[in-house]
Amino acid sequence: MVSKKLRIYSPDVTPRLEYVAGVIFSSVLGVDYEITDDRRKIGSSPSIFYSDEKVKDQFVIRPSGLLSASGVTAMEPDVKQVGDMPVLFPSEEGVFPFDIFSAAFYMLSRYEEYLPSARDAHGRFVGARSVAYRGGFLRKPVVDIWARYLAAALVKRYPVITIRHNDFDSLLTFDVDQPFAYKSRGFIRSMGGLVKGFAGTGAKPVERLRTMTGQIKDPYDSFDYIDEQVKVHGCKTLYFFPTGNPGPYDHNPPYKDREYTSTIRKYDMIAGSGLHPSYYSAGRPKTLKMEVERYRHLTGHHPERARQHWLLLHMPLTYQSFEAAGIKYDYTMGYADEPGFRAGIARPFLFYDITREKITGLTVVPFQVMDGTLRQYLYLSPEAATGVIREMIDTTRNAGGLFVSVWHNTSLTETNGWEGWKKVFENTLAMQKP
Questions:
Q1: Which domain holds residue 399?
Q2: What are the tens digits of pLDDT across the range 323-334?
Q3: Which of 354, 362, 365 shows the shortest CA–CA distance to 396?
Q4: CATH number of domain containing 413
Q5: How much is the pTM?
């Protein structure tokens, strides 16, 4: 049986509708479709009427009005249950119980993050204040779930439609905020730290001295261990390196430091890397472009990938700055305080800029869990953290999505509160295998 094209009729074909239809039908379901404002094109084709018009014997989804609007207005959609599935923009009319297009757009565009709201000490929109968290579905990829629910309803009505099966995949990522505890700090900083240590106001002077003299390995240098585990488990891996100036929230070595430069080049070659824009770069496009140029100088290529340090994601300014700097893939989409699906989806998707009402060329690659979230925000034990990670992997696997985890070399040292986390890491690599 040959699959037929799905036609979506709407009297108002807007960039928002085109965007969300692309995510649902192309990215998630793999359905060939066409949007039209001409009812005459429908004929006997499988079709969705996205309209308030009165029609008989059609697959009707009633629009909420969000996709025909522009800009943002203060709003918070109700969360209702359809069976055990949470939905936004419920509808009593039509054959479909909610406006899936508005619901998906609300989540994917991060509409709520454009609105004034309480932020944390770093100006971040936090997971615990999101509609998804308060509605009890932050740990569910609802856009994927809604899309599959729509697909089932469409196939029931139009058996000629074929839905693609998506395979699960995983990506291991590292934010190398501080590659070394003592090395690559320069003579003056190192001697200052050593003096403070012997005076009782600094950290572990003997360990610092032995590291500086090459007697022992730097305590933050867990790269050989990571290499070993990646090889054993066959993981796809990506590293993010900062090139900004050191500061109160930026503890990386100077970008010209020989040992640090060698580390960047090594992992860019063997695994792939991206830029980790500094805390200070947030909201400062010129600083970001400077760091981009430094990365290009070190690696010999422009950074196509980036994850903002401290997850300082401000909609839409961060993404506008990334685009202006030539960055094509963002990996910041996730919360520091909660695991889950910040944009409600378990796969990469294009960024839609509400302020410009346009689909952009920036691909957003969301992550589901970060080591620091589990230990430093939720205070979980290694055993409990493993349980959360298993939940995120299983949920992403069921959606046929991409499981992305965020780690730091400093969390794999078995020191400073990270005792037992190597086992969490190893369990994660084993659980995420196809």
A1: 169-180+220-431
A2: 999 999 999 999
A3: 365
A4: 3.20.20.370
A5: 0.93
